[in-house]
Structure formats: C-alpha cells, structure tokens
Design goal:
The protein has a four-stranded antiparallel β-sheet, with helices on one face. The chain has three helices and four strands, in the order αααββββ. The protein has two domains: 29 residues; 82 residues, no CATH class. By secondary structure, it is α+β, with helices and mostly antiparallel strands.
C-alpha cells in the first residue's frame, strides 16, 4: 500500500513538473535577430567596458567566451526558433579595442539540424 502511495505521489509530482515547465516555456518571448540587435545596442553601447560585456551574457545565462587572440567575445543564443527538425540560433561576436572596450557587435543566424 505504501509503495502504491509513493508511486502515485511521484507520478503527480512528475506531471506537475512537466506542466510548470511547459507553461514557463510559453511565457518566454521569442527572440528575433532584430530584437536581439536592439537589446544589445541598448545595453552594450560602443565603449562599454569588458566586465559589463561579460556581465550582460552572465545575467542572461548565455554561453559566452572571450578569445584574447581575436579580442572578441563569442556568444550564442540557442534554439530561438524551431521548424521541424531545424533549429535557429543567433551567434554574437563582440569585438573589443586595446582598452578592452566594446568596438563592434556582429550577429549571425545559425541553423542546425539533420
């Protein structure tokens, strides 16, 4: 009897978790190339210091790396759109100058799939 009770409780918990995650996914606003460009320009104007650039991506939990050899941050906003088995992401390159301040931002769509 106790085992059945625990199984039912686990099943209810699983259903609740799936429902909450599905609802949260619906609430997210989709990102477009244009809206991301506008957000980056608003939050990271030319001259933004290195630490603020890193903070922008960290706060948004976006994968990001700085490559000293190219003086650039590389970030990717993954799976912003899905059509069938093809997913669209946006790759971001943030170039910095010798003082490690933002110089230029380049965005490119990236498509992945089978």
């Amino acid at each position: 009897m106790k085992t059945i009770y625990l199984l039912v409780l686990a099943l209810i918990s699983l259903i609740l978790l799936i429902t909450v995650r599905a609802y949260a996914k619906q609430e997210e606003k989709p990102i477009s190339l244009k809206s991301l460009q506008a957000d980056l320009e608003a939050n990271l104007p030319v001259g933004t210091p290195f630490d603020k650039i890193k903070e922008y991506f960290d706060v948004r939990k976006v994968e990001c790396s700085y490559v000293e050899k190219t003086d650039a941050f590389y970030a990717i906003f993954r799976n912003i759109e899905t059509s069938g088995s093809v997913s669209k992401s946006i790759a971001v390159e943030v170039l910095v100058d010798e003082q490690r301040r933002l110089k230029k931002i380049v965005l490119k769509p990236v498509y992945t799939g089978p």
